Amino acid sequence: MRTSTGLGLGLGLSGALLTAALPVAAPVSSPCRALFGITDRLPDRSCVALTFDDGPHPRGTPLVLDILARAGIRATFFVVGEQVRRRPALVSEMVAQGHEIGLHSYSHTALVRLTPRALEREMDMSASVIGEAAGLSVRLFRPPRGIFTYSGLRQVRDRGWTPVLWAADGRDWRQRATPDGICERVARRLLGGNVILLHDSDFYGAHESWRNTAAALEPLLERIEQRGLRAAAMTVESLRGAR
Ligand SMILES: [Zn+2]
Question: Per the CB 3.0–4.6 Å rule, which of 47, 102, 148, 205 could disulfide with 232?
Answer without folding.
Answer: 47
